[in-house]
Amino acid sequence: MDQNTDDVRRKRPPERDLDAMDRKLLGVLVEDATTSYAELGERVGLSPPAAHERVKRLRRSGAIRRVSALIDPDAVGKTLLAFVHVDTTGWGKTQALLAIEECPEVEEIHSVAGDTCMLLKVRTESTHALEGLLARLYDTPGVKATRSYVVLSTYLERPVQPGTTSDWPAVVKG
Amino acid sequence: MDQNTDDVRRKRPPERDLDAMDRKLLGVLVEDATTSYAELGERVGLSPPAAHERVKRLRRSGAIRRVSALIDPDAVGKTLLAFVHVDTTGWGKTQALLAIEECPEVEEIHSVAGDTCMLLKVRTESTHALEGLLARLYDTPGVKATRSYVVLSTYLERPVQPGTTSDWPAVVKG
DNA sequence: GATGAAAGTTACTCAAG
DNA sequence: CTTGAGTAACTTTCATC
User: Fold this and answer.
1) I need a labelling partner for B162 at 20 to 30 A (CA). Which of A76, B35, B65, B85 fits?
2) By residue range, what is the domain housing residue B118?
3) Which residues are in the HTH asnC-type domain (chains A, B) (predicted)?
4) Closest nucleotide to A51 by C1' from CA
């Protein structure tokens, strides 16, 4: 189909499904990937070599995509966060539209189902920079309209978590 | 576009503003935080001790929030991504609403300006799990309505980037 | 998997230019 | 900031049970 999605969605054969131990390891490494294998094993109930072996497998299988330094947006001057809905004429997944991924301010590009076509997560230094990005969007062929949701406060922002609600011991519902 | 020179906004503990070298270091560490200080220094044009000293400062100042293992959503079974707009009666920043951060499926919670109050980024294993989350939202006092944008394809998803478009020497237009 | 041990890197600190 | 040196710590592998 298209090769544009190859960087984001790696289709790898999952050799084995992740068990509870793998999830615990991932949980620790998501919080702090600098954890040594000694402490890692201790926190999940495994010997250091066993922990190392499993983490190595998690990396090789692609379950761990990469180890990244998460930086404070304010520290690099990016104080403005916004979600931009993009309406297009026809099918919005054009090469020209996806080209905005070259802007470091654009952190996410999704096609969505709903009353809009594409959804962008954008982090800029200022409203002026956001305006520049919107201007570029409107210059893109096929872009009909945009709707921006400027973030006032962020209460939670974290990476993909290995756990699910169903992992909880009990779910209390009324 | 020139930026104001008397722009003195020291609200955090950044002792000094990040220079170009710090941004280059961050750029490398965002891509791969396992890079050794030897290679790190080589790639930015610094000696290993100098690179180490700067990275240590970046961590201490909070510019590097944490080093995290970014995991593949598919590997942990989270194949469904959705953005949920939440409309509330009155001011939506209630304690009850923010309590959903306990769900590992909820990755982001923002209050936004626009035709909605709160914006959630949610990643679940299935549509059924998403339904369960929406049910919990509707059980929350003050929640009037929700609008979900289910992601069909993700074309880009990356952490906060240290660079900006203005860093570029020239802007290439398609 | 657990244990123990070995070898190679790297982190980290400190000297001096 | 650079070079160089040095120790401690960790990674990584392997042989053993």
Assistant:
1) B85
2) 73-150
3) 18-79
4) C1
